[in-house]
Protein: NADPH-dependent 7-cyano-7-deazaguanine reductase
Amino acid sequence: MTTKPSKTLETFPNPQPGRDYTIRIKTPEFTCLCPKTGQPDFAVMHLEYVPDQACVELKSLKLYYWSFRDEGAFHERVTNEILDDLVRATQPRFMRLTAEFLVRGGVYTTVIAEHRKDGWTAPVAVQLP
Amino acid sequence: MTTKPSKTLETFPNPQPGRDYTIRIKTPEFTCLCPKTGQPDFAVMHLEYVPDQACVELKSLKLYYWSFRDEGAFHERVTNEILDDLVRATQPRFMRLTAEFLVRGGVYTTVIAEHRKDGWTAPVAVQLP
Amino acid sequence: MTTKPSKTLETFPNPQPGRDYTIRIKTPEFTCLCPKTGQPDFAVMHLEYVPDQACVELKSLKLYYWSFRDEGAFHERVTNEILDDLVRATQPRFMRLTAEFLVRGGVYTTVIAEHRKDGWTAPVAVQLP
Amino acid sequence: MTTKPSKTLETFPNPQPGRDYTIRIKTPEFTCLCPKTGQPDFAVMHLEYVPDQACVELKSLKLYYWSFRDEGAFHERVTNEILDDLVRATQPRFMRLTAEFLVRGGVYTTVIAEHRKDGWTAPVAVQLP
Amino acid sequence: MTTKPSKTLETFPNPQPGRDYTIRIKTPEFTCLCPKTGQPDFAVMHLEYVPDQACVELKSLKLYYWSFRDEGAFHERVTNEILDDLVRATQPRFMRLTAEFLVRGGVYTTVIAEHRKDGWTAPVAVQLP
Amino acid sequence: MTTKPSKTLETFPNPQPGRDYTIRIKTPEFTCLCPKTGQPDFAVMHLEYVPDQACVELKSLKLYYWSFRDEGAFHERVTNEILDDLVRATQPRFMRLTAEFLVRGGVYTTVIAEHRKDGWTAPVAVQLP
Amino acid sequence: MTTKPSKTLETFPNPQPGRDYTIRIKTPEFTCLCPKTGQPDFAVMHLEYVPDQACVELKSLKLYYWSFRDEGAFHERVTNEILDDLVRATQPRFMRLTAEFLVRGGVYTTVIAEHRKDGWTAPVAVQLP
Amino acid sequence: MTTKPSKTLETFPNPQPGRDYTIRIKTPEFTCLCPKTGQPDFAVMHLEYVPDQACVELKSLKLYYWSFRDEGAFHERVTNEILDDLVRATQPRFMRLTAEFLVRGGVYTTVIAEHRKDGWTAPVAVQLP
Amino acid sequence: MTTKPSKTLETFPNPQPGRDYTIRIKTPEFTCLCPKTGQPDFAVMHLEYVPDQACVELKSLKLYYWSFRDEGAFHERVTNEILDDLVRATQPRFMRLTAEFLVRGGVYTTVIAEHRKDGWTAPVAVQLP
Amino acid sequence: MTTKPSKTLETFPNPQPGRDYTIRIKTPEFTCLCPKTGQPDFAVMHLEYVPDQACVELKSLKLYYWSFRDEGAFHERVTNEILDDLVRATQPRFMRLTAEFLVRGGVYTTVIAEHRKDGWTAPVAVQLP
Ligand SMILES: [Ca+2]
Ligand SMILES: [Ca+2]
Ligand SMILES: [Ca+2]
Ligand SMILES: [Ca+2]
Ligand SMILES: [Ca+2]
Ligand SMILES: [Ca+2]
Ligand SMILES: [Ca+2]
Ligand SMILES: [Ca+2]
Ligand SMILES: [Ca+2]
Ligand SMILES: [Ca+2]
Ligand SMILES: [Ca+2]
Ligand SMILES: [Ca+2]
Ligand SMILES: [Ca+2]
Ligand SMILES: [Ca+2]
Ligand SMILES: [Ca+2]
Ligand SMILES: [Ca+2]
Structure:
C-alpha cells in the first residue's frame, strides 16, 4: 500500500455540532526546507480546534503535513499558511496552530497563530479547583 | 468472583449537595476498536465533575468503560457519547471528559467535551498565590 | 514520648490578621478504611487556606488526620467532613482541601472541596509575567 | 483495510547476521483478561533481542499481541509463553521480554524472562565513560 | 465482600520453573507504627525475586502487608522480618526487599535486604547496549 | 574577606522606573530555629516584585536572610515579617514572598504573603497563546 | 565564514500582518560581564512578541546578543535595554523579554519586562479546556 | 549559502590519538522513507565512538544523514549501513550507533549496532562512587 | 521539649547481623560555615552502609549533623571527618558518605568517601534484568 | 573586588590522602570561540577525580575556565587540553573530564577524556543493592 503527500485536506461531518468541544492533534514529524540554505527544518505541530460542521480527517492531515517535505518555508509564513489551509477546509469555530521548531543556530523558535469564526465566542471557561 | 462489562451506570447520593465541589477520576485503561480497520484503540479517560444529587459509582464506571472493548468507535463521537451517558446518569452541575488517545499513525489525538447544567454557574474561582 | 490520634484541632492566633495571605500544608500520610470492603485506603492531603483570626496547629492537624486510621470513610464524604471540621476549628476567610487518593481498582480519584467565609472576597490576583 | 488478530509471527531475514546487534521494540498496548475475575488486564511490552538469522516483523508482532485480547492469562505464565513463541519463531541469539502490567489492587507487577541460544555468549560489553 | 489482614502468605506453582526469571511487585501502601512514639510510619515496598517452585499470590501479599498496620516495627527489623517470611513461604532462588520509608524527622530511610538460595547462582547477566 | 549577617537591606535606584516589570529572586538557603524545640528549620525563599524607585541589592538580601540563622521563628510569622522588612526597604509597587519550608513531622508547609502599594494596579496581563 | 557581534538588529516584513500571532525565541547562550567584579554572567533569554509590520531576523538577533559578551551589565538594566532595542527595531504590537540568569552567590535571579504598543489590546484569550 | 546532502563523510586528524577517549554526537533530525509504504520515517541518531587517527567532521556528518531523506530504508538495515559507512570513514577503535525511531503503528523501535577494531580492548572502566 | 546539637553518635544493636544488608539515610538539611568567608554552606548528606553489630540511631545522627552548624568546614575535609566519626561509632562492614553541596560561585561540588572493614568483601551482586 | 581570568591552577593539600575518594565539580558556565566561524561556543564542564596529594582550588578552577572565553577551541582538542592542564596541576590518582557542549547546527556533542596515574588501580567497586 503506497500513499503520497497531498495538499488536499479531507474532512468528515462533526458528530456533535450541538456542542463546543475541543480536538487536539499533535504531530511530531513535520519537516520542510529552509529557503535560505536549502537545509531541512523540523517541527512538532500542535493543532487544537473547536469544530463547527466538519472535522479534519487524521490521515489526510498527515499527508498534508508531508506535502511540505520538499518545499522551502519560513517559520512565520508556513505556520500562518497551514492555519489558513486548515481553516479553509474545516471552517472551525476556533483553531490554533502551534509550530514548535527544532533548534537552529542555537535558537529555539515557536510560532502560534489562531483563527476565530466571526460571531463565535468561547463558552465561559469553568476552572475547577 | 466474575464481573461483566455493562452499559448501566450506577450512582449514589451526593453526600454534600449543599456545596459545589469537584470529583476527578482518571482511568488509564480504556480500549475500543477502530471502525475503519477493526484494530484496537487505547485511551486514558479523565473525568471531572461537580455533582448535583448523584455521584457516579466507581466500579460501575469501570464496567461501563469496559463495555466499549468490543465496539467500534471514532474518537470524536465516542467521547461525546460517553459524556452524554454520564450526564444522563448523574445529572451533574458540570462535567468534563478528556479522552487522551494513544498515538495512531504518528499522531496524538485528545478530545475534550463538557456539559453544564442549565442555570448553574461556577463559583467565582479563588486563585491563591 | 507517646502521642495519640485525636479529633481535636488546636489553633494559634494568626500573627498577621491584617493581611490576606496563604498557608499550604501537604500531608502525604492519610489513611482510612473502605466502608465496603474494610480494606485500607490511602491519600495525600493538600490543605490551603487564608487564615482569619486562627491558624491550625501542625501537630494537632497530624493527630487529627491520624484519627481516621481505623474509621470507614467514603472518598467524597470524608473530604467534605474534614473540610467542615477544619472550617469549624479555624473559621478561615477561605479554605480548600484536595484529597488525592491512591489508585483503587485501576482508577485514580481526587476530591476537592472549598469553603469561603460570608462576605469575604479574594484580593484581586496579581499575575506577574 | 481490515486486519485481524493472529497467533502467527512472521519474520524476515536478518540484514546483518555477521554482527551481534540489538533490536528493542516497545508496545504500550497489550491487553488480556484476568483468568480469576474475567476483567481486562493491561501491560506495556518491552521486547529486546539479538537476532540470528531472522527478525520479527513488526506488524505481525502487533497482531500477535492483539491475539491475547480475549484470552485469560496470568501475569507470570503469559510472559513466559510469549517469550517462548517469539523464540520459536525467530531463534534469536538472545531475547528478553519485560511485561510491565498496570496496577491491580494497588500493586504494580512486572515480569521479565530471557532466552539465550545454546553456545552463544554476549560480546564483551564496552562501557564508555 | 469483606477481607481481613493476615499473616498467611499463599503461593501458587511457578508456571515456568525451568527458567530463571524475575518478578517485581511494588506496593506503595505499607504502614505500621513506630515502637517509640506509637505514631504511624509509611513505606513503599519493592519486592523482586527469582521464583523456584512457588510464586507469592498477590492478594495474599497485600493482606500480609496489611497485617502490620497495628504493629510496632523498627525500620531495619521489619524489613528483615518480612523478607524472612517471604523466603519461608516461597523458597525462592533469589529475593530482594527494598523498604523505602517516608520522611521522619527530616530524614529519609531505605532498608534493602536480600536472600540467595544455597547453591544458586545468578545467570550471567547480558547487558545489551 | 569575611562577611557577616545583617538586618540592613541595601537598595539601588531602579534603572527603569517608567515601566512596571518583574524581578524574581530565589534563595534556596534560608535557615532559622524552631521556637518550640530549638531545632533548625530550612526553607527556600521565592521573592518576586515590581520595583518602584528602589531595587533590593542581592548581596545585602543574602546577608539579611542569613541574619535569621540563630533566631527562633514560626513559619507564618517570619514570612510576614520578612515581607514587611523588604517592603519598608524598597517601597515596591507590588511584592510577593513565598516561603517553602522543608518537611517537618511528615508535613510540608508553604506560606505566601503579598503587599500592594496604595493606588497601584497591575498592568492588564497579556496571555499570549 | 567569519561572523561578528553587532548591535544592529535586522528585520524582515511580517508575512501575516493581518493577524495577531505569537513568535517565541529562546536563546540559552547569553553572556555579559558583572560590572562590579568583572566576572562573566550567563543567562537564558526568552523573547516572545506579537509582530506588527516587522519580525526580527534570527541570525541578527544572535549577533546582537553576542555583542554583550564583553560589556558590563547589571541584570535589571540590561534586560530593560535589550527590550528597548528590540522594540525600537521591530515596533511590535506586544513584546516580553524574560532574562533568566544563572545562579550568582547562591541566588537565582530572573527579570521580565514587557512593552505594549499604544492603542493595541490583546485579542480575547480563548482558553480551551 | 546553499548546502547539499552528501554521502561523503569528511574527517579531521584526532588531536589526541595517544588517549582512548569518547565522543558522543546526538542528531535528532534523521528522516528517511519506509520502503513498504513510501511514508517518511523519523529517528534520533546517537553516535558514540573512541577515535583512532580520525574524527568525523560534524557538518559532513549532518549532510551525510541528510542524504537519506529521499531513500527507502528498513530500520535494521539502515542502522547497520550507517555504522559501516562511519567505520569505513573513520576507522575508530570503537563505535556504537543507536537509532531511536519515532513510533510507527503504536510500536517504538530502537536499533543499536557496534563495531570494535581488531585487537583493541576498552580501558578498564573506572566506576567512581 | 528542647534538643541540642551533639557530637555523640548513638547506636543500637543490628537486629539482623547474620545478613549483609543496606541502610540508606538521606538528610537534606546539613549546614556549616565556609572557613574562608564565614558564610553558610549547605549540603544534602547521603549515608549508605552495611551494618555489622551496630546501627546508627536516626535522631542522634540528626543532632550530630546539627553540631556542624556553627563550625567552619572545608568540603573535602568535613566529608572525610564525618565518615570517620560514623565509622568509629558503628564499625560498619561498609559505609559510603556522599556530601552534595549547594552551588557556590556558580560551581556544584560533591564529595564521596567510603570505608570498608578489613576482611569484609561485598556479597556477589545479583543484577536482575 | 575585581578578578581576572588566569591559566594558573592553584591547589591545596589533600586533607585525606590515605583514602581514595571522589570529588565532583560541575561548572555550567564554560564558553570559548569556534575557530572556524569565530562564534561563541558554550559547554557544561563536569570534572570528577580521585585526588592524590593535591586538590584543585575552586576559585582558581573557575578563573582557569574563564581564560578560554576569548580563545578559539575545537571541542575534541580543548577537552583533552583542559584535562592535561588539570592533571599537570594536581597529579591525581584518577581524573575524568566531561565537556557537554550546547547544540551547534542541530547536533549535540559531548567529549569525555580520562587520566589514570601509573600504577594506580581503582578500589574494588562496592555496588550496594
Ligand atoms: Ca523529536
Ligand atoms: Ca511548545
Ligand atoms: Ca499507558
Ligand atoms: Ca492529556
Ligand atoms: Ca493532585
Ligand atoms: Ca518497567
Ligand atoms: Ca506516596
Ligand atoms: Ca527507592
Ligand atoms: Ca534543597
Ligand atoms: Ca513551592
Ligand atoms: Ca543552561
Ligand atoms: Ca524562567
Ligand atoms: Ca533511546
Ligand atoms: Ca548527588
Ligand atoms: Ca546540558
Ligand atoms: Ca552529559
Summary: Residues 20-116 of chain F form a domain with the GTP Cyclohydrolase I, domain 2 fold (CATH 3.30.1130.10). Chain F touches chain J through one residue (CB under 8 Å). Residues 75-90 of chain F form the longest helix (16 residues).
